[in-house]
Amino acid sequence: MALKICCIGAGYVGGPTMAMIALKAPGIQVTVVDLNATRIAAWNSDTLPIYEPGLDEVVRQVRGRNLHFSTAVAAGIREAEIIFVSVNTPTKTYGVGAGRAADLRYIESVARSIAEHANGPKIIVEKSTIPVKTAETIRDILTANSRGHAFEVLSNPEFLAEGTAVADLTAPDRVLIGGERTPGGEEAIKTLVDVYAHWVPRERIITTNLWSSEMAKLVANAFLAQRISSINSIAALCEATGADVDEVAHAIGRDSRIGPKFLKASVGFGGSCFQKDILNLSYLCEHFGLPEVAAYWESVVRMNDWQKHRFSQRIVSSLYNTVAEKRIAVFGFAFKKDTNDTRESPAIAVCRALLAEQARVVVYDPKVPAPEILEEVVGKGNHEPRLSVAQSAYEAAAGAHAIAVVTEWDEFKTLDFARIQAEMKHPSFLFDGRNILDLPRLRALGFRAHGIGK
Ligand code: UDX
Ligand code: ADP
């Protein structure tokens, strides 16, 4: 009989990952379930709920063949041998650990559902980013409610980055699988290794104990974020001294011990993972009596907050220390290009800071719908008359005093800046928060153009 996989949670991680498994392992039946009926309907429609280059083609090939999207969570659990848990783990907003620890209520609720509906042995794979020892929580709940069924819990962290998810899933640097080093655990690990071995070379599949795997996910993100905060801290120094941060990054990146990736100075990192994972890591450190380690990692987030603040302050101070009633065009709202995800996007902080100075902020993003932009900045149901959304970069910039590039969308590189300049208030300012534009050329066109760290 064909192996059956169920994934609970049809989000940015669960959806693309399961689509790839279904594509590469046609003999495996994959069902993705979610309580959110609107989201499932979207996965079953021509307009997928997430924008990800190449994902439409993959889903079109396998949906209805060996990939199914459904709201029937209990049936999904009953029928599958392997259950991926890919639900959201936001930062807690209340109680002990508020603002730092992960909110595990969705994980706990899933574990209880699995215990309730399981009708035989299951392999549970935790796929969400969750702090170390979450697998233990899942196992505890399952064991306490198992009704005699055997459960093996594995950790299989996701390393895909949004915007490049399909490429990352097709050829991952590595697949990490953590499990218990017992005969049952080893067998479960082997079952999951065999799933990935359909397309991932075996030497790229790393197996570890449960805790190492969970820890590696947090640490990978902490290291990546740390590189960005490090280069952003140097950007501030470059601005003060006349060095160019891109030139510095290029020069240090040629050292093979440092390497060229993740050294792009920017308005700050965003996304659902970096900040959350670092805060989690530092919360864990404190819990285990390591306040110095906690403070070390927390400084990566503090530097990022400062970077976002610094960017908006630079806009205000360049515009003669007042932006009140000035129109400022914000180019891009997603946390990076090629995604419609806005979670923790630096654009949110930038828009809020400018609105606090009573600027009129006009946002344009090629993929994020207007209602979502408004809601992210001012909160659901609130109205801010100074905030609006434009349908194009040209519309946003017309009559503006300044442009702030916050997301590095490719289309911003090919805009007709001579036309934009002609339609702006003068002097026209431009702040490139991603260093994607040719500043000397913009200056030649009459812009007062600034980049990050230059
Ligand atoms: C990240 C990890 O890369 C991925 O492995 C993990 O599974 C989830 O978290 P993601 O958040 O999707 O992925 O995107 P990523 O490409 O890592 O970018 C995160 C943020 O850092 C973005 O806001 C991006 O614009 C910013 N960034 C990235 C920089 O500012 N400079 C860089 O050099 C790289
Ligand atoms: P991620 O980026 O980690 O994939 P998302 O928020 O995009 O996170 O997706 C998580 C999904 O998990 C959401 O669609 C949410 O509805 C779903 N979810 C949360 N709790 C449960 C649950 N108990 N049963 C089924 N689905 C759930």
The portion of residues assigned to helices is: 40-55%
Bound molecules: uridine-5'-diphosphate-xylopyranose, adenosine-5'-diphosphate
Shape: globular
Distance between the termini: 61 Å
Strand content of the residues, in percent?
5-15%
The tally of strands reads 14
Mean pLDDT: 96
What is the radius of gyration computed over CA atoms, rounded to a whole number of angstroms?
23 Å
The strand line-up of the biggest sheet is 3-2-1-4-5-6
Verbal overview:
The chain is globular. Helix content is 44%, strand content 14%. The termini are far apart. By secondary structure, it is an alpha/beta fold. Strands 3-2-1-4-5-6 form a six-stranded parallel beta sheet, with helices on both faces. The protein has a six-stranded parallel beta sheet with strand order 11-10-9-12-13-14. The structure holds uridine-5'-diphosphate-xylopyranose and adenosine-5'-diphosphate. Uridine-5'-diphosphate-xylopyranose binds next to helix 9.
Summarize the structure.
The protein is of the alpha/beta class and about 450 residues long. It has helices at about 15-25, 35-45, 55-60, 75-80, 105-115, 135-145, 165-170, 185-195, 210-240, 245-255, 275-285, 290-320, 345-355, 370-380, 395, 415-425, 440-445, and strands spanning about 5-10, 30-35, 65-70, 80-85, 120-125, 150-155, 175-180, 205-210, 325-330, 360-365, 385-390, 400-405, 430, 450.
